[in-house]
Design a protein that fits this description.
alpha+beta, Immunoglobulin-like, 2 domains, four-stranded antiparallel beta sheet, 3 helices
């Protein structure tokens, strides 16, 4: 992947879960390069690699930070995680590398978006209406049956009621 913006001309190579960034800066000022923390890897699947709940959590004590003072550079970042934006917390921001001459987490930055490798998991249900009845409806609508019949009934119920 090539990056060419007002601050830098660089290449990004992906090596498993690491980004190798090398190139030259186009400004005489110090350049700050940063990205969100890598995903949390936990002992179970359900909590692993969830997007961070906010920008504050995503960038808190990030290991993906570099201040560049020389014209040419090469450094390694861990692949950054995604995070939810404020104030509503419903929009997932993609993994990205940020370039700025104004400092860390500056509003005046240039963003290079990376491929979103985060699995589709969320902190809340993906129910469009966000009603708590989403979880309870099936118990009122489906009959008591054996496992095979129950799975078939549940699959049909989800299709008919758009609960997938």
């Amino acid at each position: 992947m090539n990056i060419n913006n007002e601050y830098v001309s660089a290449t990004v190579k992906l090596d498993k879960y690491k980004l190798i960034i090398s190139g030259n800066k186009k400004t005489n000022k110090d350049l700050y390069v940063y990205a969100a923390n890598p995903p949390d890897t936990l002992g179970n699947y359900s909590g692993t690699a969830l997007p961070f709940a906010s920008v504050d959590i995503a960038f808190e004590n990030t290991c993906n930070f570099k201040k560049i003072t020389t014209n040419s550079f090469e450094f390694t970042f861990k692949y950054p995680n995604t995070f939810y934006s404020l104030p509503d917390g419903n929009i997932k921001m993609p993994s990205a590398i940020y370039f700025s001459i104004d400092g860390f987490l500056s509003n005046n930055n240039v963003k290079f978006v990376l491929e979103d490798t985060c699995p589709i998991k969320s902190l809340t249900s993906r129910n469009i209406l966000n009603k708590p009845e989403f979880y309870n409806d099936k118990y009122n609508d489906l009959p008591i049956a054996n496992n095979l019949t129950n799975m078939i009934n549940l699959a049909n119920y989800k299709i008919i009621n758009n609960k997938g």
